Amino acid sequence: MSTTTDFGAGPLSRAAALIHTLVTVEALLLLAAAPGPAGLLLLGPDPANLPLAALCLLPLGPALSAAVYALHHRDRDLTDLHPARAYRRGWRLNALPALKLWAPLLAWLTVIAFTLTHFPATGLPGWWAALLALTGLVSLLWGAHSLVLTSLFTFRARDTARLAAYYLLRHGRATLAAASLLVLTATATTLLTEALPALLAAPLLLSLLHGSRPVIAETEENFTA
């Protein structure tokens, strides 16, 4: 009996398949979101430009959703890789659903950021600033759950929003994993380069998927036919 491992099934082949998928998805994500960063380069650091910056970031939501879809449906066999096809399918299926959640989230985060940058003019006590910052963090964590859910499941926008809020406390470890990714990304961006989140988007999304496995499993078991 032959004990030879078929080509495309060994650990080296699986690692090569993963790298190929990550590089392809990263390139397609940057391409799909390109209009946003291009617009951001034209804007100055003035807080008054925050609403325009939010508009520039609108294409990022569908691009991220398509990337999550492609990474979740990736093939581990080096002989049968189609990450570009999976990305295009994910974008086609999820662009509009993702935008329905991404646009309100961006608007809400823009309001919070604008308020914090103009906080002295509000006349509010200092603890309000801390509360606003905490609200922004919770909103980002809700957005992380929403991104996974809207990328992998077909629900109405309001149902996805409710599920994402439900999972914030229901699966605290998944929420903590998403929070750790946010902190790690923010810290590395501050210490290294602002381009880091864009350059490492695919690995970060793969880590988000890994941490969201309990959320995905419960959704498949309890909320899908």
Q: Any overview of this molecule?
A:
This protein starts with 10 loop residues before the first helix and ends with a helix. The chain is 76% helix and 0% strand. The protein contains eleven helices and no strands. Mean pLDDT is 89; it is low at 1-5. It has helices at residues 11-33, 35-42, 50-56, 60-72, 83-117, 126-152, 157-170, 172-191, 196-199, 201-211, 213-222. With 225 residues, the chain is an all-alpha fold.
Oligomer: single chain
Distance between the termini: 43 Å
Q: Could you tell me the radius of gyration in angstroms?
A: 19 Å
Give the topology string: H per helix, E per strand: HHHHHHHHHHH
Nutshell version of this structure?
This protein is mostly helical and 225 residues long. It has helices at 11-33, 35-42, 50-56, 60-72, 83-117, 126-152, 157-170, 172-191, 196-199, 201-211, 213-222. The protein is 76% helix and 0% strand.
Keywords:
225 residues; mainly alpha; 11 helices; disordered N terminus
Provide the fold topology.
Layout: H1 11-33, H2 35-42, H3 50-56, H4 60-72, H5 83-117, H6 126-152, H7 157-170, H8 172-191, H9 196-199, H10 201-211, H11 213-222
